[in-house]
Every structure is written in structure tokens, then in C-alpha cells.
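=== RUN LOG ===
request id: a7f3
mode: sequence -> structure
chains: 1
length: 169
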Amino acid sequence: MLFSITAAFYRVTDITPEILDRMGVRGLILDLDNTLTTHDNPVPADGVLDWIDLMNRSGVKLMIVSNNHAPRVKPFADMLGLPFVSEGRKPLTKGFREAMHRMGLTKKELAAVGDQIYTDVLGANLFRIKMLYVSPIEFEKTTFFKVKRKMEIPFLPKKLYNEKSAEND
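=== RESULT ===
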């Protein structure tokens, strides 16, 4: 299925090393806007810096793959100390493939993390890696995004990941 989601979370900071370990994930391909920060914001969302530190200490490899141009992505990635791929052309697989090679991992060891169905989710499925959906930090105000978000509704996950329910699976 082109819009399959492996697990859905409220925020990126809800993804833990323990969850990733259970999934066999050793690396995350991270979207930028509305995943790590709000759209065009140069400052990470609350908790993101601590979350990155936790992932680094846990040995989880992280790389940003964004459709944005380098002048948007590079300063943000540098501030977080993360490698990046700009102009990733999601949902095409170019950015995912480059990230996989640079991270030195296999598709089985990777998951994509993002908030958009038609770029992040579709791209992860076309590349055949796990997809960890996160709710957008905030909804964009432009007409383009309003229409796009309405078109995503049929494909959105019905419930978000819950640690307690996962233990009962």
C-alpha cells in the first residue's frame, strides 16, 4: 500500500530508542518542517534538542531529508549537529537513497519520520522503508497547504502510538 504507516505519534519526541529497537530500526530519516520545527522556523520545537541527544546516546543514526533548498536546511541541520540532504525530491526516492548510503544502513534498519502523506509517507513506501508518521506541529496557513491537508484526511492514521497498548500486542 502506498500510504502505509508503520506507527503514528503525536510528536517526534514521542519516538523512543526502545520503540525503535523493537522495530529493528537503527536510523531515522527526518523531515524538517512541521516535524522538527514549525514551517520556516529557524528554531527547533520544544524537546527536539534533548530528543536528538537521547537518540545520539542510544546509537540511533539521524539524518534530515528535506525538499527545501540548502539555505533553509543547512543552518538548521548545523544547529542540531545533523547531516542532511536538501532538495530531497520526496516522494521520489533520491533523498532517501542518498541518506541510506551516507548512514551506512540497510532499508530494513531505516525508518522515515514526517508529517505529510504525499511526500513523507508516499516516499517512504516507494523506497520500501518503515514510516513513522507524526502529527504536524501546526497547520500551514497557505491555500495550497490547506487543500493538501484536506486531501490527506482519508489516509491519516486512526490512532497514535501508545506505549501501553504496544505492550499488549
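=== NOTES ===
The two ends are 22 Å apart (CA to CA).
The first strand starts at residue 7 and ends at 9.
=== END ===
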